[in-house]
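TICKET #2291
ISSUE: user wants both folds in one file
ATTACHMENT 1:
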Amino acid sequence: MSLYLGIDFGTSGARAAVIDPEMRLCVQVSHRFTSVEPHKQAIHWQEVLFSLIQQIPQDIRAQICAIAIDGTSSTVLLCDGSGVPLDAPILYNDVRASSALVELQAFFDHANLQGAPGQNVVLSATSSLVKLLWWKQQPVYSQARYLLHQADWLAFLLHGQLGVSDYHNCLKLGYDVARLEYPDWIEALGVMSLLPQVRSPGSVVGNIIAAIAIQLGLPTDCQICTGTTDSIAAFLASGVTAIGEAVTSLGSTLVLKLLSATPVTHATYGIYSHRLADLWLVGGASNTGGAVLQQFFTSQELLELSPQIPVQQESPLKYYPLTQPGDRFPVNDAALLPCLEPRPANPIDFLHGLLESMARIEARGYQLLQELGATPLVRVYTAGGGAANSAWTAIRTRQLQVPVFVSPQTEAAYGTARLAKGSRE
């Protein structure tokens, strides 16, 4: 039997999932990251990658015919001509490149390139391109030959081909996902020689290196594919394929992803679109979410109180639940204060008001995406810890006015395994 392996490198650890041709989950394993010095980070990733694969039972490993890997968006490595990292990786949330962001903004202003392809996405202190421009100012840059994303470098360890990436990871490098090419303006930055070749996510790069296959107990004809980002892998896990369907992730924050026939980009609200074949994954993220609930309720209290909420009655409490000031989507206001008053004495009423208010924010988010040109919402799948709260689901169904379901699969590794399977179809 042909099996497919997806590997997810997230923020706190890595997971692997193996699926069969019917997309049934065969095995899933995980490995938490340990704290290491920054210059040892890449070696730690390599150790985790190999350890994850070796945790899979040997009889399963022997049937794996394709592998894809996802990584955190804009986690990047600067490598020499042999693929050896020249510096510690810069992680997804590292803002050390802020000085380069100022210079990039000045470049766009001077060249009168407002609205150029990719501009809105790269103008962030955490974008891949800004991190590369920061590295360009460092002495180590003179030895650099490749800029690779986390998923690119991990896949290179298996297939041995440098300078290959996918258009999901490369969006924040400025890659024009509409035209499937780097935009002309990148030439003027003097970094083109380090940028990877860009392919569709899930494209076959080549067979696994024979010696690595033997070391890991994998078939020597196992194919290694281009990957994706961890957030898109989580979307792919849901199985959503029809336009108008969406996935809401109810984690610490609230993240919306809508599959649309048309792309939407809006810098003010932090909205941008990833390409999914001939469709577009339009997304936005709010700072409201489960982290607010955890400020006021324990997990046990949420379990006990939620079933007591009269979910068919709309709460009159109008909150904007935040853990600290500021939101960007669907309200763009860096100084927006949390609104958590008045607080009723009955904890059931308070919880009802919080869940109702978060559902209103979610509904407004999807409404905004549609106002800006995305395909109308028809169905929502739910991932994240909040997906298990049936009261919240009922409230959201009422506010969204479309069917709301729990995603049958939510692990990013499962979504990446689906990507690997697609390479063989």
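ATTACHMENT 2:
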Amino acid sequence: MSMMDQLNTQMKDAMKAKDKPTLSTVRMLKAALQNKQIAKGEALTTADETAVMATELKQRKDSLAEFAAAGRDDLVTPLEAEIKIVEAYLPKQLDEAAVAGVVDEVIAQVGATGKGDFGKVMKVLMPRLKGQADGALVNKLVKAKLG
């Protein structure tokens, strides 16, 4: 079942249950996928769909941090619910220890020795961890290991 089919199914279920927050979120996700498909001009691959969902998740997490810093608790709770819905469409996220293991492996693979090799490491690492780990976490771990 494609991600669009899953979204359609969840949208129907949310309509039947009169679950407006879920319905709203699913509609936004569906629109994001459709916009990406239109921009690409062809059907989306699974990797494309995952990338769109990862972008949507990152946008919501960034907004969550901003709302929390501003003391807008009225906006934090609904956004946390949206984040849970988006996360359901992404592969299981790796924990910090698993990401650190992959970072060590890639550093050894490319023969990185210092900060100057940061770009080489990230170029190999990010496609491998796409949708499975937060980019900020990966960035932090690579900088710590190389510098």
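RESOLUTION: both attachments delivered.
EXTRA DETAIL ON ATTACHMENT 2: DSSP finds seven helices and no strands in the chain.
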